[in-house]
Amino acid sequence: CSSLLNGRESKRNADGTLNLPNKNLSKMDVDFLYHLSIDTANFDLPAMFGDVKFVVMGGTKHRMREFACYIATILGLPQDSKPVNLTKASQRYAMYKVGPVLSVNHGIGNPSMTTVLQEVIKLMYYAKAKDPMFIRLGTSGGLGIPPGSVVISTFGLSGTLEKSFELTVLGVKRTWPSYLDKRLSEELVTAASEFKEFKTYAAASMGANDFYLGQGRLDGPLCDYSEADKMEYLNKLTSLGVRNIEMEVMAFAAITSEAGVRAGIACVTFVDRLKGDQVTIPKAVLNEWQKHPMFIVGAFIKKYVENR
Ligand code: R2B
Ligand code: URA
Description:
The protein has a five-stranded mixed beta barrel, surrounded by four helices. It contains eight helices and twelve strands. By secondary structure, the protein is of the alpha/beta class. Helix 2 (61-74) runs parallel beside helix 8 (291-306), helix 3 packs parallel to helix 6 (249-259) and helix 4 (182-192) packs across helix 8. Uracil (URA) is lined by residues 139-141, 211, 215, 245-247, 270-271.
């Protein structure tokens, strides 16, 4: 696996601000964070974002707006009836700030997620935010656990069962470890213990690059393997301790860790993949289940803020 530490003693400065490994950044007069529609010349980033402690990311704009409203309620912060999308001009993503929390959507899959993740990491760097934590609130398919349960990821396992994120850079395949912050995942598990209406598991997550073939589904437009092949693979994942399959864990774990930010992932499961492929639960129920990781992350943030 590669490391981008590049002789840096630490991935963070003594005051908790980020010490990013790309030396080119300090030579740039202006940095345009294109997909956020924010730049370092026209925005006072330390004033706008310097107090951010938690960057919470999830697939859809709707979910992240809902989380922004939810966190405002539980932190007792004034609620805008209409939270402001700070990256509306980008037309790509949505980003809301509520006190120390930035709630950002990332779309589906690694390329969409890494694009906004890397720009938000730079945003935290330019804002001089101190020790920001990154948490993904996701959805997933479960393996042998009741739908509606939450999986707090301990690490990511690729489709080829490697604990590393692979990316081709300048024509060369490179890999980075896909571990998440142990302390943060333990803290999320502790926060989950107050919610008895659903189960929470701390386990490995498989990060797929596709929803259908990449997750061993039989119901996509393409499929050239049998049900027995699918079950052999899913049972193998289960025997390795994997409890859910989603589409961003590999890159999320690798990039946050290389950038020196603590990161965790809490995903609800919408289907037990050992029993089927289709997500058949009514949308209203899925919308309720989608709140389970929000409850956990909200409780974690509330406790953290109250103890400061
Ligand atoms: C889970 O759900 C999405 C696909 O439906 C994807 O973003 C993921 O990781
Ligand atoms: N998201 C996924 O990536 N897979 C599922 O099975 C459900 C949600």
